[in-house]
Amino acid sequence: MSAKVTATSLFPTTTAGSLPKPSWLAAPNRLWAPWRLEGEELAAAKDDAILLALKLQEDAGIDIVGDGEQSRQHFVHGFLEAVDGIDFDRRVEMGIRANRYKAMCPTVVGELRLRSRVHAREARLARAHTRRQLKFTLPGPMTIADTVADAHYRDRVKLATAFAALLNEEARGLAADGVDVIQFDEPAFNVYMADAAGWGIAALHRAIEGLTCKSAVHICYGYGIAANIEWKAALGPEWRQYEKFFPALARSRIDQVSVECINSHVPMSLLELLDGKDVLVGVIDVATDRVETPAEIAAVLARAAGHVPKDKIIACTNCGMAPMRREVAAKKLAALVQGAALARREAG
């Protein structure tokens, strides 16, 4: 493959990870969407969807692209499907994210081990078909531990540490596949703040051990689903959860931090607590179908630049776009690129 395209130096663009799946692959506009196919037909359809996701991002002008999580039914369970020691037939309904909502969770019944590489097929396919920087997402160890029932370790720290070791094994493989940025999605950090600043970051350090590519952690207030929207409405006029663990993240070995910013009540001044990190500033709201204007996006980036060095800012979506209508997602990606370009011009 020819040389990679260099990302724009000021306000490069990327997504938080997931994109809507084509309706021929999975039921549209929903999480946990059932697959339309099975066996080799499903595997081939997933490959096709990845190529479409790359094309969608490149056509929009996104600098740092990803596979859109097209091969995963859910961002956590897509990883768990390759893990021994988990019984998917023994599902337990349990509250996750501090009982914000209930989910049917598989049960950890024995020592955790990877049966094989988890995402080699998707990463190698994506790397072979784009010259842009490539980002790949994995669930964070704390969030996985919060999304399974544990009948073996019976200790959340031990459970998260065990998952971190498996994540590290896969992350090293992804780096060898040519991935430029590996992002760990940790919505649980926004729920268990004290733990996040302690063993949560320690587990992330285990997950990134020995990585030769950039590492990132994505923290936000979740997909645009009813349970999350209701939770955010109850958080009050100013959301200061981040300040409880941002200083610890600033001291961590993680390279980048992805944060929800547009239409949130997070004070921009809290971004100063991430001193030294690249900050992925969320400028696309995934909880609404309304498409942001370039001026609105540029304004958010300008406010962020008052607290983070401009060359440390990456323009991003607030969260994944999996439940969104595909045509809306495409328009939002185009707006993201246009808004970042306007912010560049205004920054001189």
Structure in words:
This protein has a 7-stranded parallel beta sheet with strand order 1-4-6-7-8-9-10. Strands 2-3-5 form a 3-stranded mixed beta sheet, covered by helices on one side. It is built from 10 helices and 10 strands. The mean pLDDT is 94. It is an alpha/beta fold and 348 residues long. It has helices at residues 39-60, 77-80, 120-128, 141-145, 156-176, 193-207, 226-233, 246-251, 294-304, 326-347, and strands at residues 64-65, 83-96, 101-114, 133-139, 149-150, 181-185, 214-219, 256-260, 278-284, 313-317. Helices cover 35% and strands 19% of the residues. It has a single domain (39-347), classed as TIM Barrel. The chain is globular and about 55 Å long.
Instruction: Compute the number of strand runs.
Output: 10
Task: Give the DSSP E fraction (strand runs of 2 or more residues).
Answer: 15-25%
CATH class: Alpha Beta
Q: Indicate the CATH topology.
A: TIM Barrel
- Give the fraction of residues assigned to helices: 25-40%
Q: Using the CA coordinates, give the radius of gyration.
A: 19 Å
| Count, helices | 10
Strand line-up in the sheet with most strands: 1-4-6-7-8-9-10
Q: Average pLDDT, to the nearest integer? A: 94
Structural class: alpha/beta
Low-confidence stretches: none
Task: Identify the CATH architecture.
Answer: Alpha-Beta Barrel
Number of domains: 1
Give the helices and strands as they follow along the chain.
Answer: HEHEEHEHEHEHEHHEEHEH
How does the overall form come out from the CA principal axes? globular
Largest sheet: 7 strands, parallel
Terminal Cα span: 34 Å
